[in-house]
Specification:
- This protein is 19% helix and 20% strand.
- By secondary structure, it is of the alpha+beta class.
- Strands 1-2-3-4-5-6-9-10-11 form a nine-stranded mixed barrel.
- It is globular, with a radius of gyration of 29 Å.
- The N and C termini lie far apart (101 Å).
- 22% of the residues are buried.
Length: 347
């Protein structure tokens, strides 16, 4: 009689007895393992190209707050803004705040920063781009600093996993553009944003809350796609220079508009027929139902005279290339042939 023939009858009852005794504990451990959230579900590192942008390059009107839930103070701040203030030496190196990740044209470069010994993820570094500051999203559980701590262009960010999505809370960033040169967030704002990866796509949803310049949270969503062909435009040293003679002659001058004196307040109404109350934004303008209110007051312009899809007209006049308002070339948007659709083709 061999050892194998004895092993089965002796061990099998022991295994069955052990499983019956510990079955409840094993079941509990199995359920907890399924229910426990993973600490690092998704790798977000890499280059991510923007698939669209909210800050449309054809939105040229200096006063355009449509769809932004600005408060009365936020509206007053926007209407007092004069873009010439960027030529002041103390403002030339001003950067875009973290919110511009969702609004601006920049792609994303995300780098995982790991502990050199344990290889544990310490932070995600979102590389600065042009004139948007670098951000560190700390993943090691450190708390946010005191409200009185220094503010930077990139702010202070912490991240936590919620399933497969990374939730980031950003505070301590300086006042900056909510919408390029049109609406602004204060240094008391908080940005909560979520990065969710689906294969080669990252969806970024941002919620901006500002007790100073917003009456309600401002919500935007942007989509990025993994790309190996994204051109880098890294941060470079900024050196202020004298740009405007009036600022050289009067260094204390701060270009601005007094209340009710902004000369561009009616441009959207004149060019696009959009009522002024909509142009000036506010919580009501962010909801789809607002279109019903405008149905009886909106009058479409007879023809497009600006931002019609062509390149900008050359300065100083002259024929030049077709500019805004010029007749489109043959192709998309061009008028049909004189014979009209359905006419017999020439023989």
């Amino acid at each position: 009689m061999g050892s194998h023939s004895l092993f089965g009858p002796l061990v099998t009852p022991m295994i069955r007895s052990w499983l019956q005794a510990f079955r409840p504990a094993l079941l509990v451990l199995f359920v907890l393992a399924i229910a426990a959230p993973a600490m690092a579900q998704t790798d977000l590192s890499g280059w991510w190209a923007r698939q669209s942008q909210n800050d449309n390059g054809y939105a040229n009107e200096p006063v355009d707050l449509i769809g932004i839930p600005v408060s009365a103070d936020g509206r007053a701040k926007a209407l007092s803004y004069n873009i010439a203030s960027l030529s002041a030496t103390e403002r030339q190196c001003q950067m875009y705040p973290p919110w511009y990740i969702t609004y601006g044209p920049f792609p994303l470069q995300i780098i995982a920063e790991q502990d050199p010994i344990t290889q544990k993820l310490v932070a995600y570094r979102i590389v600065g781009w042009g004139d948007r500051g670098e951000q560190m999203v700390w993943m090691d559980g450190r708390p946010h600093p005191s409200p009185n701590a220094p503010h930077t262009h990139g702010g202070f960010s912490t991240g936590t996993w919620e399933g497969t999505s990374l939730k980031v809370v950003t505070t301590h960033f300086k006042m900056g553009d909510m919408k390029r040169h049109r609406a602004f967030s204060s240094d008391r704002a908080t940005m909560t944003w979520t990065l969710t990866r689906h294969d080669d796509i990252i969806t970024v949803t941002g919620i901006l809350e500002d007790p100073v310049y917003l009456a309600e949270p401002f919500v935007l969503t942007e989509i990025f796609q993994s790309s190996s062909a994204t051109n880098g435009f890294p941060l470079t040293p900024c050196e202020p220079i004298e740009e405007l003679p009036m600022l050289h002659e009067n260094p204390a001058l701060v270009p601005h508009y007094l209340p009710g004196k902004n000369p561009f307040m009616n441009e959207m109404t004149q060019k696009k027929g959009i009522p002024l109350e909509a142009v000036l934004g506010g919580p009501e303008t962010i909801y789809p139902e607002y279109r019903k209110k405008l149905k009886d007051t909106y009058k479409a312009p007879e023809k497009c005279v600006d931002s019609c899809g062509g390149p900008p007209a050359p300065r100083g006049g002259g024929p030049g290339p077709a500019g805004r308002g010029a007749a489109p070339p043959a192709g998309r948007g061009a008028p049909p042939p004189a014979a009209g659709r359905g006419a017999p083709s020439p023989q």
